[in-house]
Amino acid sequence: MDVRIRAAESGDVPAMARVYVDAWRTTNAGILPSEYLDGLSYRKAELKWYRVLADHQDTPKYFVAETHVGKVVGLAGGGPEREGNPTYRAELYLIYLLAGYQRQGLGRLLVSAVAEESRANGFHSMLVWTFKDTHGACRFYKSLGGELIGSGTITIGGRDVTEVCYGWRNIADLAANQSQEHKGLWNTPHLQDGHRQSLETSSSN
Ligand SMILES: CC(C)(COP(=O)(O)OP(=O)(O)OC[C@H]1O[C@@H](n2cnc3c(N)ncnc32)[C@H](O)[C@@H]1OP(=O)(O)O)[C@@H](O)C(=O)NCCC(=O)NCCS
User: CA-CA-CA-CA torsion for 88, 195, 73, 44, nearest 10 degrees?
Assistant: First the structure.
């Protein structure tokens, strides 16, 4: 598939908001309350992503997967781990692909982009949180060599949801997955996460 991974730009925000909201709805149906998912809106997501972008103009922390016709079909982002974990120093904050673009290797490339960026910023380990019942994501992280290192509970839309945490002690191999043919531009300022900022998570590593 002719898709490139590149640093996100402010012009990507509307497309990123669509990927984010659509993927949340399709992935989390049955996991999160339907009222909560129905309440997500592209406009609110756009405002959040614009704000996050404006707050973090110096570092390319967010990446998009873009088709050859310029359609953004996925996004991922990461940066320093946010809860002070002493072992896992970087964090994959989020990764989402539109349903029609999953299982084609793009997730692996997006993770590689985040891992490579993390290494460039001096981090050599990484973790990610996901819902325990998001089985596809759990299998994905395991397939990339992630080890189950923790769990926690968060409340979203009035429902308690179990989260699990996967970690990589050494992200050299993850970063090396980035193949030359998919490699895009990496030096554009970017966004910071919105998703986990709003989630109260307790971890137990
Ligand atoms: C999870 C996600 C990012 C993975 O990206 P992807 O492009 O679909 O995954 P890849 O094609 O790179 O898969 C790499 C490997 O991971 C494993 N894998 C990925 N998705 C899987 C699934 N749904 N079920 C089982 N294994 C899976 C496979 O081993 C796969 O290799 P294979 O296709 O050769 O068997 C993507 O499917 C997605 O956006 N899902 C919905 C949103 C989501 O769950 N995000 C994570 C929230 S934290």
Answer: -160
